Amino acid sequence: MPTSFIRLCLAALFLAAARPATSAAQPTGLSTTERSITRAVDAHNATTLALLERLVNINSGTQNFAGVRQVGDVLRAQFDSLGFRTRWVDGAPFNRAGHLVAEHPGTGPKLLLIGHLDTVFEPGSSFQKFERVNDSTAKGPGIIDMKGGDVIILAALRAIKDAGALAPMNVTVVFNGDEEDAGHPISAARRTLVDAAKDVTVALGFEDGAGDPKTAVISRRGATEWTLRTGGNAGHASQIFHADMGAGAVFEASRILNEFYTKLSGEPLLAFSPGLILGGSSLTIDSTGSEGRASGKRNVISKQVAVTGDMRTISPEQLERTTKAMREIVAKHLPLTTAEISFDDGYPPMAPSDGNRRLLALYDRASRDLGSGPVEGLDPSRAGAADVSFVASIVPMKIDGIGLSGHDDHSDKETADLRMLPVQTKRAALLLHRLTNGEGATPRP
């Protein structure tokens, strides 16, 4: 044997020994059906990406009802092709476009998958189209919040069907058309979602979460809007604090806001913020609480003040405790002033629970079995409000934030990591398949 050939063989063996092992990144512990599911995800990835681009290029700002319906029509046709029963829920009763519902009855535990069709980018925005940045990233309005999550839902179910495992799946998919700006009354706007959650064992939300594929959301803080109004006696500024004039509306509002901060700001995971304040002799404020006008003079005691703000709470108990404390602070008036505070229904909190932790453990195991690494629970202070919270008190097991990874959502830099599209799809598909076959799902009481 030639010496040069021997040297070549030895060099090849050395390089093979020196090359880092890749077994940790390969799927392990998968059944034959699960391997078929992962192969189907890869086989359809180019089609899934093309669908994502198509959806991103349809403007579906919440107030663009026609655009929201168009995104719904595209997805509806896809679910029809999978054999789902689909229907459109008209949004006229809550002044929005409406919602898409897709249902597949089966013998497995009932599962609820949650997405949304709308984005924060209305037709007047300059950010309108899908744009490839490079081989691994793309920009576009709603690409991660949350059209990426929507196509992951569809792609996961398609892969399960291709593997011959869809028949027993008992799943309902709800795509709300107004997640970014919920309709009013919010009870009507979320009735479809809440009704779909009845008898559901597991709910999965496909928002982008913190954009970190190493995390999933097991708890979300609720979002509650509040409005504070104070009143005082108008008069010459030189007479303020006299027994017949009192302190005025601005001092009363200042007292209340200061006590809010002093007494409540240290509570863990509680956030509250006054976002708009208007005061003076007269004022007007619009119905959204985000715009208004005030007038007054330096030498006139303020007659009225309006403050609008936001509050985030981690549990129903924290919400109840905080609103009670705020009402008690408001009720202690400065001389000859009035004050009242009101709270809207808002987005409820999703408190952490044992069921959520068990579901996260199942998702984590699916990810590890795929060779995609561990998944941990996200710090709830990094997660905003989302539709999954509306079913938090109904469904025993739920996680969110398992959609397409990326960064800068709600901005004209919204960018997706396209490498994670098949990864997130495989994770979701494997979890859904295993839940359908009775792995880990907690029976409803």
Report the sheet with the most strands, covering strand number, pairing sense and barrel closure.
Answer: 6 strands, mixed
Q: Which strand-content bin applies to the residues?
A: 15-25%
| Helix amount | 25-40%
Spans of at least 5 consecutive residues with low confidence: 1-25
If helices are DSSP runs of H or I spanning 4 or more residues, what is the number of helices? Answer: 10
Write out the strand line-up for the largest beta sheet, numbering strands in chain order.
1-2-6-3-7-16
Describe the SSE topology.
Layout: H1 3-18, H2 32-56, H3 65-81, E1 85-90, E2 98-104, E3 110-116, E4 131-132, E5 137-139, H4 143-162, E6 170-176, H5 186-189, H6 191-196, E7 202-205, E8 215-216, E9 222-231, H7 249-264, E10 271-280, E11 282-285, E12 292-295, E13 304-313, H8 316-330, E14 338-343, H9 354-369, E15 376-377, E16 397-399, E17 406-407, E18 415-417, H10 420-436
Parallel strand pairs: 3-6, 3-7, 7-16, 8-15
Antiparallel strand pairs: 1-2, 2-6, 4-5, 5-18, 9-13, 9-14, 10-13, 11-12, 17-18
